[in-house]
Each structure stands twice: as C-alpha cells, then as structure tokens.
C-alpha cells in the first residue's frame, strides 16, 4: 500500500542524475522534497540552497516514512 501511495503522489517532474548511481524524483506538492535512489536504497531528502550552496538533508528511509509524513517533515524543516 505504501508504495502505491508513493507512486500516486510523486511524479517524475525532474529526475536528476548526480553521481551515475543516484537519482532523485521530486515531489509535485513540495518542490524541495525528493525521493533519492542509490542502488536499491530509497530515502527522502529535502534540498535547499543556502548562501549559494546546495544543501541536502536526509529525512529517512522511504520504506519507513510515507509520502504524507515526509511532506510534514519537509514543511517543518523549511519553516
């Protein structure tokens, strides 16, 4: 059920390849929230820019945190 919820609520608006083994699918509700995939591991991240530098903060494993909870965490971080 959780994976179905994630697929329904996240759209691949902008898949970014940083290292060859990393891919981020950005949320369509909160633009700074993304699900990062490295190999078989998926984590939620919040990416912001502070003083011209990109900062990524890991929220936790996508298998343990739902989309709605990841959004709540992102809103709390972003203020």
General description of the model:
The protein is 25% helix and 41% strand. The longest helix is centred in the C-terminal third of the chain and has 12 residues, at 67-78. The mean pLDDT is 83. The chain has two helices and five strands; from the N terminus they run αβββββα. The termini are far apart. The protein has helices at 2-9, 67-78; strands at 16-17, 22-26, 33-38, 41-50, 53-61.
Summary tags:
5-stranded antiparallel beta sheet, 2 helices, 79 residues, alpha+beta
The whole-number mean of residue pLDDT values reads 83
Shape, per Cα inertia axes: globular
Radius of gyration: 12 Å
Helical/strand content category = alpha+beta
Q: Which strand order spans the largest sheet, edge to edge or round the barrel?
A: 1-2-3-4-5
Looking at how many chains there are and whether they match, the oligomeric state comes to single chain
Provide the β-strand percentage band: 35-45%
Give the number of DSSP strands: 5
- What's the helix-strand series? HEEEEEH
Give the topology.
Elements: H1 2-9, E1 16-17, E2 22-26, E3 33-38, E4 41-50, E5 53-61, H2 67-78
Antiparallel strand pairs: 1-2, 2-3, 3-4, 4-5
């Amino acid at each position: 059920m959780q994976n179905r919820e994630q697929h329904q609520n996240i759209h691949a608006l902008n898949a970014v390849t940083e290292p060859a083994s990393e891919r981020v699918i950005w949320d369509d509700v909160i633009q700074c929230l993304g699900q990062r995939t490295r190999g078989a591991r998926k984590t939620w991240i919040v990416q912001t820019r502070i003083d011209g530098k990109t900062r990524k903060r890991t929220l936790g494993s996508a298998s343990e945190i739902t989309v709605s909870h990841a959004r709540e965490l992102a809103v709390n971080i972003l203020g």
